[in-house]
């Protein structure tokens, strides 16, 4: 069953139950109200009749007086549905109202034999066919009766009108519920269509569904997810295109020189030069494949990254030691400085983080004129490690894409070094950023959550 039908069915059942319970409650409330009102009216009539009988008491006969002569003692009752009976202390009927016809009365007995009701059951309140009011008077006991049917007739007439109102309100609420359901389900149906586009990998065709509340939040998430998937898909395609290009270049050099040597095109020193190029390009190809494999593992494999508590001080020292030969070859000076802080502890994979730092420093050696600076500090719970140089800096066009795969500067190699550094830093829970110094040169900053010394 569709969600719209389920919601409509549930709403209809809830509406029917609510109206039914309300109708039953109103029925009993109305009945109790009318019964209470009738009892109050009987009390008023009873008091008025009692006062009238006391003021105009002309009863002079004895108990044996004919019943037909007694009704004059009881004044005329205001309501046509109210009947009165006057009895003495023994329960013998002394007089009745003029229109007393619902109950057959014998002058020598309380009620005619065979009747289902008698005055005792009325006085006890066990006869549910009548609403009664019993009042003691100087002349005896005055009992006023109203048939219950008269009250129920009025209550049922009013209740039928209320049922009509309920039916109209129920129909309106049902139609309103259908409208609300449609308004709620329609965005979900549209969202389903957009999710089908995601399933079919048509990420760029996904549209934002406008809706309110949680549905709007889900629609926004789906739209953002499609955008991210579209960008990821584009990056993947670009990655394979760049990778094929980067791999094809050394392979062409290797293939060309190998065929030339085999065919005897190169002789003497040219053969040695060709073999050197083959070895160089093979090393470059091996390095490129290794970096691509590492980058893929950093993106997909969890167990490749083994974190532990490490000190950046030791990591910087090892980086300087490994970079010394290259620095001396290029005539560069590396400066290391620290802020006043006791320890620079972070949680990361030591070997991977060392590789990330080596990649950043190696990248700085390509563009520095004379100096490279490494500075470590702690700010706002973050361990910051910055590597800067005094070179020309990073162009504004390249800066937003510097850490993307196969993005190279003028003298770049594979274009994967900084991408690997970013992957390692982010897997360590950190963030790597790039910018330019005010006095010239590039600066790359790595930030990590600081650990307290144990």
Describe the structure.
The protein has 454 residues and is of the alpha+beta class. Helix content is 53%, strand content 15%. It has eight helices and eleven strands. It has helices spanning 3-55, 119-124, 148-199, 213-262, 269-300, 312-330, 350-367, 417-427, and strands spanning 83-87, 93-96, 130-137, 140-147, 308-311, 333-338, 345-348, 371-379, 382-389, 431-436, 442-449. A five-stranded mixed beta sheet has the order 6-8-9-11-10. Strands 2-1-4-3 form a four-stranded antiparallel beta sheet. Strand 8 (371-379) and strand 9 (382-389) form a beta hairpin.
Protein traits:
alpha+beta; 5-stranded mixed beta sheet; 454 residues; 4-stranded antiparallel beta sheet; 11 strands
Shape: elongated
- Strand arrangement within the widest β-sheet reads 6-8-9-11-10
Note the gap between the termini: 60 Å
Q: Any low-confidence stretches, pLDDT <50, length ≥5?
A: 58-78, 101-117
Largest sheet: 5 strands, mixed
Number of strands: 11
Q: Fraction of residues in helices?
A: 40-55%
Order of helices and strands: HEEHEEHHHEHEEHEEHEE
The radius of gyration is 51 Å
Mean pLDDT: 77
Structural class from helices and strands?
alpha+beta
Q: Which percent range describes the beta-strand content?
A: 15-25%
- State the assembly state of the protein chains: single chain
Tally of separate helices: 8
């Amino acid at each position: 069953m569709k969600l719209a039908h389920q919601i409509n069915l549930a709403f209809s059942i809830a509406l029917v139950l609510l109206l039914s319970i309300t109708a039953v409650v109103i029925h009993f409330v109305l009945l109790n109200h009318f019964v209470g009102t009738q009892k109050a009216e009987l009390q008023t009539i009873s008091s008025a009749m009692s006062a009238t009988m006391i003021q105009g008491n002309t009863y002079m006969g004895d108990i044996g007086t004919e019943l037909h002569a007694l009704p004059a003692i009881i004044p005329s009752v205001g309501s046509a549905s109210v009947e009165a009976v006057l009895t003495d202390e023994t329960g013998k009927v002394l007089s009745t109202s003029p229109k007393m016809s619902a109950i057959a009365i014998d002058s020598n007995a309380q009620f005619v034999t065979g009747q289902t009701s008698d005055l005792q059951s009325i006085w006890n309140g066990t006869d549910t066919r009548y609403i009664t009011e019993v009042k003691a008077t100087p002349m005896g006991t005055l009992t006023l009766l109203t048939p219950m049917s008269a009250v129920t007739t009025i209550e049922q007439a009013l209740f039928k009108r209320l049922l009509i109102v309920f039916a109209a309100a129920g129909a309106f609420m049902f139609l309103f519920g259908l409208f609300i359901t449609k308004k709620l389900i329609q965005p979900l149906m549209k969202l389903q269509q957009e999710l089908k586009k995601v399933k079919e990998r048509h990420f760029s065709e996904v549209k934002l569904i406008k809706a309110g509340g949680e549905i709007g939040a889900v629609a926004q998430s789906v739209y953002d997810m499609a955008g991210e998937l579209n960008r990821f898909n584009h990056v993947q395609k670009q990655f394979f295109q760049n990778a094929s290009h980067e791999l094809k270049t050394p392979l062409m050099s290797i293939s060309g020189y190998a065929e030339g040597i085999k065919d005897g095109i190169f002789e003497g020193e040219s053969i040695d030069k060709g073999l050197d190029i083959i070895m160089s390009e093979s090393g470059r190809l091996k390095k490129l494949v290794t970096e691509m494999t590492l980058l893929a593992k950093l993106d997909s494999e969890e167990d490749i990254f083994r974190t532990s508590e490490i000190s950046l001080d030791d990591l910087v020292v090892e980086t300087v030691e490994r970079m010394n030969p290259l620095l001396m070859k290029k005539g560069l000076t590396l400066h290391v400085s620290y802020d006043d802080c006791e320890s620079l502890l972070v949680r990361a994979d030591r070997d991977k983080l060392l590789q990330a730092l080596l990649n950043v420093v190696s990248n700085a050696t390509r563009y520095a004129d004379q100096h490279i600076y490494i500075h470590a500090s702690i700010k706002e719970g973050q361990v910051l490690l910055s590597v800067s140089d005094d070179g020309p800096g990073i162009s504004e066009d390249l800066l937003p894409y510097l850490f993307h795969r196969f993005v190279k500067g003028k003298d770049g190699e594979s274009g994967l070094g900084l991408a690997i550094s970013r992957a390692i830093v982010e897997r360590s829970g950190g963030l790597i950023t790039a910018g330019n110094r005010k006095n010239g040169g590039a600066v790359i900053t790595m930030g990590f959550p600081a650990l307290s010394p144990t």
